[in-house]
UniProtKB/TrEMBL annotation:
Molecular function via GO: kynureninase activity; pyridoxal phosphate binding
Modified residue annotations for N6-(pyridoxal phosphate)lysine: K210
Organism: Puniceibacterium antarcticum
Protein name, per record: Kynureninase
Keyword Lyase: no
GO BP terms in the entry: anthranilate metabolic process; L-kynurenine catabolic process; L-tryptophan catabolic process to kynurenine; NAD+ biosynthetic process; quinolinate biosynthetic process
SUPFAM superfamilies, per the entry: PLP-dependent transferases
Amino acid sequence: MTDFNWTRDQFHIPQGMIYLDGNSLGPLPKMAPARVVEMMERQWGEQLITGWNASGWMAQPTRVGDRIARLIGAEPGHVVMGDTLSIKVFQALAAALRLNPNRKVILSDSGNFPSDLYIAEGLIDLLGNGLELRIVAPEDIEDAITEEIAVTLITEVGYTTGRKHDMAKLTARAHKMGVITVWDLAHSAGAVPVDLAGAGADFAVGCTYKYLNGGPGAPAFIYVAPRHAEVAQPALAGWMGHARPFAFEQDYDAGKGIERMRVGTPPVLAMTALEASLDVWDKVDMADIRARSVELCERFIAGVEENCPQLTLCSPRDADVRGSQVSFKFDNGYAVIQALIAEGVIGDFRAPDVMRFGFTPLYTTDKDVDEAIEILTRILRGALWDKPEFLERKAVT
């Protein structure tokens, strides 16, 4: 049984703040600063370049990958860390297309994060060869998986509404039609139970700065199913993905299994901070996380709908098809979010009119939810959001 009082104490939440934006950036694990300082002073400072061997920096991407694997239902040895999520999307999508060379359609949905779609469009422009990106409504994705599709590129939990796709069902449909699957777990990893192996997923990618609390810019991960691990060809053939990087051979020879999906030099400092968070995750059961998340989300929805009739729920009402966030629509949603932030309640805004609130059981409590509802109600009833300083758009919303 997960002790959520203990997990809350492992993270720094500023005094007086109600943090409902862990779906965008998780808070600082209290042990991360000391862990990073120790790495910098003892390893980098004293060992310098010998730290690659003495402190295991070279093996860190696969070691950390295995720790992530437990949280996403992946087989050991089939997740590796490094680079950004956009790069990992590019790698996975390019490798998936090469496994299905006689088909030309990448299928995604309109609820997908725009960056994933940009990556697909850029890859199509690069490769040419008649490839196309087909985008349908999220609810139409299952019927759109036909025998002409090469690859599905789907974010399991949508970034605006939190709508959750049925990974097992859609993967089964895809395989029946001869389609390769790429799953983006940016809003799934650490938020909902994921079973990549059980669902039979082909590829998956995800970031670690949201629910996994790795910090801003924390490295992404990529998963390749065992059946593809020795044949998937990385389009980004980086030095670290070579079978013998220190042989300095002129021609590329892909490394063994998931190692071939490494590209650049491992971000050792960032992964060290991430490992401080994973020490907490090692003591967490994802089933407990999910059950508590549903409780928090349901409490928030009920309270907001009772007290704030101006707002319209745009997240699924059914928890079974909702991730760990709740979104409401309001024409002046941006200003309301700014007013909330000024009162110490941190959510965020997604254009054109969506207010997002993330619920992360590691540190979010019933008291946080109730106080957030109370403050939101006061802001709306008094139109306290209608001030020039709240209406002016900032660079990050």
